[in-house]
Amino acid sequence: MDEIDLNSGALAPVTQEMDLIALRVTGKIPDDLNGMLVRNGPNPLSGRFEGVGLDSWWPEAAMLHAITFDSGRVVGYRNRWLRTQRWARTYSPGNESSCLETNPNINVISHAGEIYALAEGGAPLTISATLDTLGGANQLAGFAAGMTGHPKIDHSTGELVTFRADWKQPYLRYGVIDNLGQLVVDTEIEMPSPSMMHDMAITETHSIFLDLNVGYDFSMLGRGHRLPLRWRDEHCARLGVIPRQGGDVRWFEISPCCILHVVNAFNEDEKTIVLDVVRYPWFMRMISCGESFDANPAAVLWRYRIDVTSGIVHEAPVCDYAMEFPRVNEKLTGRPYRYVYAVEQPTLVELRGIIRYDWHSGTIARYVVPPGDHNSEPVFVPRQGAETEDDGWLLCCVYRQLTDTSDVVVLDARNIASGPVATVHLPTRIPAGFHGAWLSS
Ligand SMILES: [Fe+2]
C-alpha cells in the first residue's frame, strides 16, 4: 500500500465522543428534512492511527457520526464508538464479555424497525437512534454472526437481501429477510475458493454475486501485510445470478476487474439483466516480487448487460469520470432508474466533489469541492411527496482543509451544480470514512 499520513487532514481521527448543539448554518435547511444522517467509519480508540497505509485505516474501530434535522433546523451532532469488545478493552476493562467481538465500521441500514451497523463479513450490531449499541443483530437470524456491509433492501417488498462471503467454508451464503424481519431464504452457494465480495446487486427477480479478481492469499500475513488480500491474475472473474428466493446460481464470465461498489441493477426485459457498477481494471495488485502494492487505478462507471438466455455478457465503460461511493434513490434499488450520484475522484488520492450522471441524457452535473477538501458519499433523501426520481436532497459530509473542520451540505439533487441550499458548519471533523444512511424520523 502507498504510504499515507493517516493522522492529518481528512483521514485524521477524532479523540473523543461529542454532543454538539447550536450549530452554525449557512442557507436554509429544507422544512421537510426530518431525520438523521448517520455515517460509519474507522476511528482508532487511541485517537491515533498506527501504520501508514490504507490497510492500517480500514480495520480500525467503528465510529458513528450523526447529524439530526427537524422542521427546517439542525438539532445537533453526535459521535459514538460502537461498544465492541475492542472498545471495552480500552474504555471499560473487565466488561469485555458484555460486548461482541466484532467491528462493524462499514455501513448503517434500517430494516424492519431496527437499525444496524454493518461489518465487512463480521457480526452486525443493533444500534439505537441515539447511537447507543444495543447488542447483536438477533433479528438477522443466521446472518447475525456475520454478513456483508452492503445488503440490499427492496423498498417495494421490504425485503433485505444479503450474503456472507467467508475465507473458510462455506465460502458463500445467501439470505433474504422479509419485511417483518423473518429469515425466509438461507442457502449455501458452492464456490471453488474464497472470494472477496464487498457488494451485491438485486433486481425484482434475481440477486447477483461478484466473484472477481481480488481474493485471499494468507501467505501475505507472514510477509508483513495486515490483510490477506491481493489481485489474482489467474482467477476467472464472473457474475453469479441466483433467483431472489433461492435456487441454482448461473455464472457468467466477464473481463478481469475489481468492483467494490454496485450502483444498481434491474431487469431490462425477460432475458436481459442490467448491472451498473463502478469498476477498477485491477486493484491491490502486487509488484516487486510480491512485497508491495502497485498504486490502484481509478474506477469508472461501467454497465454489464447479461443475456441470461444466451449466456453472453456485454460490458462497456459509460463515461470517463473517475468516481466511487455511488448512490441512487434507494426506492428504485433493483428497478429501472435514471440518476447516479457518486463521489468524484479528480486524482488517485482524492475523493472530492459530487457527480450526478443522467442515463437518459448521458450528461454529467458536478458539485465542485475545492482542492484540499474531501467529501464522503452523497446520500439521497426524497422530498416529501416527491413525484420524480430526483426530487430530493443529497446530504454529504465535506472536510474543509482550511479550518480542519467538517461541513454537512444539503444539495438539491436536481441542481447540484448551484451548490448547497444549506450548510451545517461543525466545529469538529467528521473523519473520512465509509458509508451511511438517512434515517427518517
Ligand atoms: Fe463499501
Summarize the structure.
Belongs to the carotenoid oxygenase family. The protein has 441 residues and is mainly β.
Task: Tell me about this structure.
The protein is an all-beta fold and 441 residues long. The protein has one domain (9-440): 7 Propeller (Methylamine Dehydrogenase, Chain H), CATH 2.130.10. The chain is 2% helix and 44% strand. The protein contains two helices and 34 strands. It has helices spanning 54-57, 85-91, and strands at 18-20, 24-27, 35-42, 62-70, 73-81, 107-111, 114-118, 125-127, 133-136, 152-154, 159-165, 172-177, 183-189, 201-202, 206-211, 214-216, 229-231, 238-243, 250-253, 258-269, 272-280, 286-287, 292-293, 300-307, 313-327, 339-344, 354-358, 363-367, 374-375, 379-382, 392-400, 405-412, 422-425, 436-440. The strands form eight sheets. Strands 20-21-24-25-26-27-28 form a seven-stranded antiparallel sheet, with no helix packed on it. Strands 2, 29, 30, 31, 32 and 33 form a six-stranded antiparallel sheet that branches. A hairpin with a 3-residue loop joins strand 14 and strand 15. The two termini are 41 Å apart. The model has no long low-confidence stretch (mean pLDDT 95). Fe (ii) ion binds at residues 106, 149-150, 198, 260-261, 434-435. Residues 106, 149-150, 198, 260-261, 434-435 line the site of fe (ii) ion (FE2).
